Amino acid sequence: MPIYEYRCQQCGHQQEQFHRSLDRAKIPDCEACEPGDMQRVISRFATPKTESQVLDQYGSPGPGAGPDAYRDPRQIGRWAEERFDQMGVEMPAEAKQMIDAARDGELPAPVKDL
Fold first, then answer.
1. 28 touches 15 (CB < 8 A)
2. Among candidates 47, 74, 48, which has minimal Cα distance to 61?
3. Is the domain of 37 the same as that of 64?
4. Which helix H or strand E contains 40, and what residues bound it?
């Protein structure tokens, strides 16, 4: 039961279409400008990473962090601080305030429900 992605050649809108079988798959109409000229596009895919690959890419989550540290949005602040320091750039005051608030348990609205 594949899900395909289509892009409208007229307006650029991209959408997904679920097909129960390839035999009955039909190109959908554009949801934005109907009917549009929809073309199937190659979908992106993800591959899972091992713990060592995550550590190689992002670094250690810090002292006392458990195995789920990368799922904790507060860890993003530590990572951001390290990256700003590595680049020799001063972190904006607003970003620093959000990181400090997250450490105190007050998460920004976009990550509160994670």
1. yes
2. 74
3. no
4. strand 38-41
Q: How many domains does the chain have?
A: 2
Quote the pTM value. Answer: 0.40
CA 112 to each of CA 72, 73, 107: distance values in angstroms, whole numbers, following the listed order:
11, 9, 6
Rg of the Cα trace of the chain?
21
What is the per-residue pLDDT across 72-93, written as a single tens digit (0 to 9) for each?
Answer: 666 777 778 888 888 899 989 9
CB 48 within 8 A of CB 18: no
Q: Verify that 22 and 68 share a domain, yes or no.
A: no
Could you tell me if 36 and 57 lie in one domain? no
Residue 18 lies in a domain: yes
